[in-house]
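Closing statement on the LQZAQKY5 sub-project.
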Amino acid sequence: MGTSEPSCGSIVTMTFPRVFAIILAGGAATRMGGIDKPALIVGGRRMLDTALAAIAVADRTVVVGPHRDGIAALQVQEDPPGSGPVAGIAAGLAALGTRPTDRVLVLASDLPWIGTRTTEDLLGALERTEGADAALGIDETGRVQYLLSAWRAEALADALEALDSPVNQPMRALHPQHPVTVEVAGATDCDTPEDIERARTVGPGPLTLDEAREAVRTGVAALEPREGVLAESLGATLARTLHSADAVPRADVSAMDGYAVAGPGPWHLLDEVRPAGDTGTFSLAAGEAARIATGAHLPAGATAVLRDEFAVVEARVLATLPDSSPRDDTRRRGEDWPVGHPIAPAGTAVTSALVSAASSGEIRIATVRGPVRVHVVTTGDEIRRDGPLRPGQTRDALGPVLDRFVTSTGAVPVTNAHIRDTADGFDELLRGATDVDAIVIVGATGGGAADQLRSALARARAHMLVGRVLCRPGGSLVAAALPDGRAVLGLPGNPYAAIATLLVTLPAVVDACTGRAPQPRLHGRVANASEVGTDRTRILPVTSLPDGRWIADPGVRTAHLAGLVGRPALALIPPGAVNDTVAELIPLPAW
Ligand SMILES: Nc1nc2c(c(=O)[nH]1)N[C@H]1C(S)=C(S)[C@@H](COP(=O)(O)OP(=O)(O)OC[C@H]3O[C@@H](n4cnc5c(N)ncnc54)[C@H](O)[C@@H]3O)O[C@H]1N2
Ligand code: MOO
């Protein structure tokens, strides 16, 4: 939504509507014993702050309710205080000073799972719908949420004026002439203590995959920094910039096999040879040369290196090859890095390449966070890892390979278990496993009778970060943070769904725990994106075409991993994608 005004004398005559926001944040919720409901924390922040974050698009915002310190927005109170939401909207609109062509978002502050996508959906529906004067949010049950709406300012003013008085009016009294309803994300409100408890248990959702990754990145706490031997810290992240302890090269060295020479040629060739690793005692006087190997330190007195290809030697006299253009093949001390050169910034993953670069700079130990130690768990009474299958049993298709997939994200699997579908088993799982940073659990994410994860997380008072995602497969993905900081990732049980969601979201856990800067995403053009796309993101295996595009496999089955065999990557096909859409690619581990 643009907000620019036409500039004076400009030939640009198009104007974009300005967006204002009214957040109703009355105190003393009667159905909750008079407590300050907007200040209740759900999903790690006050519901009022969630509302404020959701209207980031607004040019100006007014919060209607009792004055609260520390709020950047304008604050007003309805007159008289406690006279209901319509009076609150009237007070808010009066304070905003809107023009008829503006748009006004009206938001309650008891909607713990709304976000900018919610308000974008409302504003989008209002703009797109011919003749609509307001867009009213509806939740998944089809219930209209008047306090989750976007209005044309003129229509809102008219609706208020149509009332004798806004005082003590029910919300439905404030009715637009031509409303459009739109199912928006996060429309479930909290009116009772039970609603709050349910919201805290079910968690936010449905979220897009990007929102889910962001929720994990911001909701999982970083590990404490530690001093670690880099070569033993693969998967960790630098907590401070890594500086070279020595110059690279650390002395003037030869870049080629050839001759160290002193002064201009021709040169008298000495018998001495300077192999790599030798610092010997001989030196060169002007007009002298000695054989030198690639990587060897230059002898004292040497001014340059002449490589073999440009050299001729006759009767112990060295000269440059006629008609050649020789260059000095010396690598000078500090030419690549002086002492103290920054090798890599904080947030860089400790990879084999970084360990190697650090050792070039004489660094062995650094301040790091991580690596993320993971307890990997499969669940399900029917799942059998070893031995013959009895009736009703299913072969464990993940236990033997999960570690490998976990490793590919940068995390380190340290323990591995299978647990039964019992409440006790899940409670024990969350209580135990205290010497890891994250627990990755396959299965039990659904709401079925045997699916224990969500209730166990609630009993453990976990902070739910992701309750559901808008993707296929894997919609029942769960992410949470336990009170002691350990992250829990609950992967949907079908093996393909489990691995697809693991590869998309476990990297975000690693980012959060270790402070790793999010990895640059890889992208590719998916030739058949419109044929395989649906209303939500699809995670599909892809193969490459000779022209560099990718083709997605629409028929992938979720009950096993056969769809990944021989495939180099997964693609995240966004909803409504057209053919040749550029999609995010997630490489599959090479083995
Ligand atoms: N009423 C509904 N039921 C289900 C829905 C739904 O939307 N409504 N979604 C289905 C989908 S899709 C998935 S995925 C699962 C997710 O539920 P859970 O995470 O609770 O998964 P489980 O029920 O524990 O297992 C699902 C499926 O996967 C098999 N499984 C689990 N672990 C393994 C393993 N290690 N090796 C092989 N197979 C495994 C398990 O036997 C089940 O068949 O919910 C659906 N139901
Ligand atoms: O969505 Mo389930 O997560 O397809 O296999």
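DSSP finds twelve helices and 36 strands in the chain. With this model delivered, the sub-project is considered complete and its resources will be redirected to Aim 3.
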